[in-house]
Amino acid sequence: MAPNRTVSHEEKLKLLHSWFQSTHAFYTLKEIEQKASKACKIPGMQVKELVSNLVDEGLIQQEKSGTTNLYWSFTYTVVMNKIDRAKCLKHDLESKKKHLNQLQQQLEEVRAERSAEAVPERVGRLQDLDALYAEIDQLTEQNQQLQQYQELKRLKAGIEFFTDSIETMLSWLSEKSGIQKSQLRKEMGIPEDLDDYALKPE
Predict the structure, then answer these.
(1) Angle at 67 between CA 63 and CA 70, to 5 degrees
(2) Are 24 and 76 in contact (CB under 8 A)?
């Protein structure tokens, strides 16, 4: 004789749920323990837990009548529950689609706001910035030129001072010695056109 097969918890739930739908009646927990345990061959001590599981899953309904809880499960109730569930899912999907469209619209608005064509003020600021950079470059170049000019001016002053000093010395020697300045220039190797070495005045 083959050993009895053990019925799983899921199978017991299906058996009990099928029994409810086949009877189309209202039962107290005590009646379920008596009738369903016999019809489904489920130990009576397990029925209460199975009923609680089916209630939690929404497969059977529970309503308190006075001091007693009544349990039932009709075929149309399951169908209606599925329809309601489908409606909820559809509503949730539509809400998510609407929210997604709003986010996409906001994204497009942000992109449009950042677009140079849509923000002339930003374009103007960029142009002002470019102008400032150009002005800085120009001032830097002018500053370099000014430094070069000041250096040349300093050199010019030094050369002029040196030239004047030589001329003063030649005049003093010529006066003291009676020798002409041209002769002194020749003896000292000082060119006649020494003044040409000095920078021309501005």
Answers:
(1) 30
(2) no
How far, in Å, CA of 45 to CA of 30, rounded?
11
Are 33 and 44 a contacting pair, CB within 8 Å? yes
DSSP 8: P
The model's pLDDT over 19-67, given as tens digits with 9 standing for 90+, comes to 888 888 888 888 888 888 888 888 878 888 988 998 888 888 888 888 8
CA distances from 180 to 187, 190, 191, 201 (A): 11, 13, 14, 28
> What pTM was computed for the model?
0.39
Q: Radius of gyration (Cα) for the chain, nearest Å?
A: 56
Instruction: Tell me the C-alpha distance between 164 and 159, whole Å.
Output: 9
Residue 199 in 3-state DSSP?
Answer: coil
d(CA 55, CA 165): 121
21/127 Cα distance (integer angstroms): 79
Integer Cα distance of 136 and 131 in angstroms:
9
